[in-house]
Every structure is written in structure tokens, then in C-alpha cells.
Write a structure and sequence with these properties.
This protein is mostly helical. It is built from 4 helices and 2 strands; from the N terminus they run βααβαα. The protein has one domain (5-79). It has a two-stranded parallel sheet with strand order 1-2. Helix 3 crosses helix 4 (71-79).
Length: 85
Amino acid sequence: MSFDFFVPEIVMIELKKYIPYIVQKSGLKEVETIKLLNFLLENLKLVPLEEYIEKLPCAMEIMSKIDEKDAQFVALGLLIKNDGI
């Protein structure tokens, strides 16, 4: 059985922003942390905003009372055929 994992490209921006925090909490060196994150990212398909932007208004409405920062994940989920988000 094989799975495809799709994530919004914004994940890369968020990961880069939190690398110092991840390093601090993990106890790994920055180089080791980056290698590990790159390894994990190899199995993810990064999807640019342009591909799911049309679904963003609906996703924002869905997430308005939960966490609008996660709307991009929902928009992407609305765009692709999937078994769940």
C-alpha cells in the first residue's frame, strides 16, 4: 500500500521559522535537525498556493471559528481527492 501526502508550500516557511525552537527542544544540532526535516520532507508533495487558491475562501469560512491559519490545509484538502484531512 502506498500513500501520497500533500501539504501547502507554506509548510516550508513555517518549518524554517521554527528551526531554532525545534533545535532547542530536540537537543539536536541545527545541521542534524535540518537533515532530519529534509528526510521527512522527501515523502511530502509540496503544493503551491496557486493550485488551491480558488478553494481558500471556502476553507476560510470552514476554519473561521477554529483556526484560520490552517485554512490552507483545508483548501488543499478540498481540492484533491482524499480519504480525509
